[in-house]
Fold this protein.
Amino acid sequence: MKNIVILISGRGSNMEAIVKACAAEGWPARIAAVISNRPDAAGLQFAASQGVATAVVDHKAYPDRESFDAELARVIDGFSPDLVVLAGFMRILTPGFTRHYEGRMLNVHPSLLPAFPGLHTHERAIEAGCRFAGATVHFVTAELDHGPMVAQAVVPVLDGDDAGALAARVLKLEHRMYPAAVRWFVSGQIAVQGSRVRQLAGESQSFS
């Protein structure tokens, strides 16, 4: 039984999707904990209602990024994680932290990487005139929004879209894609070969 630790900063809708899928689909894993850097994160209440352990490591209580990451890693490691999942965790992580969880930490980013790393991805996609946008699940590395890509979800950019409408459409697909990617990891169904990730059970790594 694999242990999954999920990090959130807010509502944690992707966390909710993962918690529900883990229970409904009988994964060989359990959600060991949901941890937030914000004491008021709404997702903590949902996690507790599902019987999942919760913890808070408030970044405001630490003088620098390194000391925060050190305490966060200490708390995470208390749950013996096989996989760490970033689900709307709005902190830039230090290289030491990402090295510690290399090969066992996933993130979902709301763009079709390598396009539009960083913030305001939907606004940037619309401004650039993209006909398609989406989201990417990838392994976390020291370089922001890089790392081997596990899965991608694609939606059309419609005439008249604003960032909110596009984000809502992308998020619906994230709620399908991210649980699938986590399930693949805990089931031993993905292999990283250089910069490419293979799905060993033949499931599609593209969502639309």
